[in-house]
Structures are given as C-alpha cells and as structure tokens.
Design brief:
single chain; binds zinc ion; globular; 45% helix; Sufe protein. Chain: A; 17% strand; 149 residues
Length: 149
C-alpha cells in the first residue's frame, strides 16, 4: 500500500471516529450484549445496548480495541442506531453489508447510511472489509439473543 492509499483508507471521518470514539462506555444495565472478534486483524468490539419502552435503541455502548477501520465503524454504528427499532437496525445492517459488497444503491439509501458511506473505500482492500463489518456482525449477534435486564 502506498501512502496515498492509506490516506484514502483512513479518511478524515474514519480517523475522527477512531481518535474520538462515540458511545465508548458500556451500557449498564443492558438489554443486549455481544462480543465480536476478528482474528484476521485482532479487532475486538463489545456491544451493549438498552431499549426504551417502545423497543427502540435508547443507549448504545461500543467499546473494544483494534484497527482504525474496526473502531471507527463501531463508533459510527453506535451513533446511527440511536432511536432505531430492531427492525430498522436489521434493515440498516443489510444495507451496510450490501454497500460493503459494492452493490449499487439509491441516493435515499446512501443518505440513510450517513457517515458510514466513508467506509466504502475499504472495499478496495478486501481483507479490511471484515474490520468494517465486525461491529455489525456483533450487533447481529446481540439482536439474535436479547437479554432482559
Ligand atoms: Zn482491523
């Protein structure tokens, strides 16, 4: 990889989330919990969340360690999930996955992804796609096994 490639990969938005991760504190007590690990890179994400009375995401915690891509993706995910229902979160997860697979999507769908679109550059480095998806597969695990606290 050249420096130019690295600059693109770690764009400003990604670096900002990596250096100042949002919602990095674990939620306690939580309704959902899951831990994800990406052995290809050593990335780890611990996801915790609480739901409000309407079953929307109220508080989200994404903490862990690893490369800039994995941690920035977790930080962005923690922001975009707030206020969403489980079904909306599942739809967003599918949309993000297809974006990372390079599938073409509409302007409306791109808008829904917000800053996450910045992670699309990662597609040029297929091994790093696992880094970008780690937080989301952890979310997927958490939604499959909700815990009532
Ligand atoms: Zn990584």
């Amino acid at each position: 990889m050249t420096m130019d490639d690295l600059d693109t990969l770690y764009g400003e938005i990604i670096l900002d989330h990596f250096r100042n991760p949002r919602n990095a504190a674990a939620v306690e007590p939580y309704d959902m919990w899951a831990e994800g690990y990406n052995p290809f890179c050593g990335d780890q994400v611990i996801f915790t969340a609480s739901l409000d009375s309407t079953q929307r995401f109220a508080k989200i915690g994404c903490n862990g360690q690893g490369c800039a891509i994995s941690q920035a993706s977790a930080s962005m995910m923690s922001e975009i999930l707030k206020g969403k229902t489980i079904d909306e979160a599942k739809a967003l997860l599918e949309r993000f996955r297809s974006a990372m697979r390079g599938e073409v999507f509409s302007e409306e769908e791109e808008e829904a992804l917000g800053e996450l679109v910045a992670l699309q550059d990662v597609r040029r480095f297929p091994i790093r796609i696992k880094c970008a998806l780690l937080a989301w597969s952890t979310l997927h695990d958490a939604m499959d096994q909700p815990i009532t606290s």
